[in-house]
Design a protein that fits this description.
The complex is a heterodimer. By secondary structure, chain A is mainly α. Chain A contains nine helices and no strands. Among the domains of chain A are: 50 residues, no CATH class; 60 residues; 33 residues. Helices cover 82% and strands 0% of the residues of chain A. The N and C termini of chain A lie far apart (154 Å). The chains are: A mainly alpha, B mainly alpha.
Chain lengths: 245, 215
């Protein structure tokens, strides 16, 4: 077509002016240029002839009369559509009712403030996960259990190691204490002998008191033995002795 | 063509402006639920829409169904019409054009076997276009010949590609100016003019070929 056989600015300009030329709106210098190019270019000349012929053919077509019942049908269709729309507004379908109820339930949540909070929370969690170098894949149940058990093992090992260290420390301390005591004992042996002698002398001086105490204890023991043999009788004996005293 | 052009030119600008104002008022009333205004709008535009549909779809039945669909769509969306962007006529034509394009895509397979030898009109047992052009069926009266010629052009129009056809229909059959067509088709005015030229030329070639085959 145009521009295919003889491309160029003149052909493009001819194409742009063609409709105006067929409409009869082309005058003056533009019309002269148009006619000049039409005479020079065979392709554009053919296009002009075909387009003019096509326009002439199309002018044969008259406006069709619409069917008589068309307007009535249109009004009936639109009134039905209006009724259907009004009915749909009045009687919502089950799905619309469910949607409405769901919206009512989630109305407090579906607010800009909640959305903002959720966004901030999500941002914070993402930031923390990034800083901790935790990937989303690490949060699967399998990986979580794996992480839990490996952490538990680490803690157990740490505990065992600490226990061993403390045990060794305590042994060392015991040994050191034992060594210190031995040395002190060796230094304190003469003093101890003197103290023993003094103690022995004191014991001899307090012998009569101890004997009395011993006898007293024995009497008490007799009473107790009587007490153990017969409860009722011993109670009577004990009462008599107390009265005599 | 000359008659058509004269008709376009002879329409006074003041009358068109006044008509546009009346229509704009009707649309406002219709948007607020005035059924009388809606009836008036249907009265004013149904013939124009029917013609566009008929020339594009090719069948009177299809055109009637499509026209109803267009008006149902217009009725539902009349509230969204913005008078500052385009006139109501251009808007309705745009709605029609979009619907026709959808219809064309849906029925593409049905038209794959269409040709110039297709049976004309509603009479399926009637002669083909080629037969009529060859003069096998005598039509003594002039108005019958004229009707047949129009039918032939109508059939040829359906053979050209949709892009060119819609541009030609809007310009040569609906009297829209290039700016309005550019708004409806959402392409630059230069493209509109080019499509019209190519559409007219293709139509002429088709008709010439048909004549040659008939002869």
């Amino acid at each position: 077509m145009l521009g295919e056989t003889k491309p160029g600015t003149q052909c493009a300009e001819f194409d742009a002016l063609l409709t105006d030329a067929i409409d009869g709106n082309l005058t003056g210098e533009r019309r002269e240029r148009f006619e000049q190019h039409r005479a020079d270019c065979a392709a554009c000349s053919t296009l002009f002839a075909e387009a003019s012929s096509g326009a002439a053919w199309l002018s044969e077509l008259e406006e069709m009369e619409a069917p008589r019942n068309l307007m009535h049908n249109i009004l009936a269709a639109t009134s039905e559509a209006a009724k259907a729309a009004a009915k749909a507004e009045r009687d919502p379908s089950a799905w619309e009712r469910l949607l409405k109820q769901t919206r009512m339930v989630f109305a407090p949540v579906l607010t800009p403030r909640f959305g903002m909070s959720m966004g901030m929370a999500f941002f914070s969690i993402t930031l923390v996960l990034n800083m901790a170098q935790i990937k989303i894949t690490d949060l699967t149940p399998h990986n979580l259990s794996h992480t839990f058990y490996s952490s538990q093992n680490k803690v157990m090992k740490y505990y065992e190691n600490m226990r061993l260290v403390y045990e060794i420390e305590s042994r060392v301390r015991d040994l050191r204490n034992a060594t210190d005591e031995k040395q002190q004992n060796q230094q304190n042996q003469p003093n101890q002998r003197q103290e023993k002698n003094q103690t022995r002398e004191q014991n001899q001086n307090s012998e009569p008191e101890r004997r009395q105490l011993h006898e007293y204890t024995r009497e008490q023991n007799v009473q107790v033995l009587a007490l153990l043999n017969g409860k009722d009788e011993s109670l009577g004996i004990l009462a008599k002795q107390r009265r005599q005293i | 063509m000359l008659t058509l052009f004269t008709a376009i030119q002879s329409r006074p600008v003041e009358a068109r402006v006044e008509e546009a104002q009346v229509v704009a008022q009707l649309v406002r009333r219709c948007a607020s639920g005035d059924s009388v205004a809606w009836e008036e709008i249907v009265q004013r535009f149904h013939r124009r829409i029917y013609n566009i549909c008929y020339r594009f779809a090719g069948s009177a039945d299809d055109a009637q169904d499509l026209t109803q669909e267009v008006f149902i769509k217009v009725y539902r969306t009349v509230g969204s019409f913005d008078g500052e962007k385009a006139s109501f006529g251009t808007w309705v034509t745009t709605v029609t054009r979009n619907l026709l394009v959808d219809h064309f895509r849906k029925t593409r397979n049905d038209r794959a076997t269409d040709s110039m030898d297709a049976v004309m009109g509603a009479d399926e047992d009637g002669p083909t276009l080629a037969d009529r052009l060859a003069g096998d069926v005598e039509s003594p009266q002039a108005h019958v010949e004229s009707r047949e010629r129009r039918e032939m052009v109508h059939r040829a129009l359906l053979q050209i590609s949709p892009d060119l056809r819609e541009a030609v229909i809007l310009r040569d059959l609906q009297d829209l100016d290039y700016r309005e067509i550019a708004q409806v088709l959402k392409v630059p005015e230069g493209t509109v003019k080019s499509r019209i030229n190519r559409g007219r030329a293709e139509l002429a070639r088709l008709l010439q070929r048909t004549y040659r085959q008939a002869l």
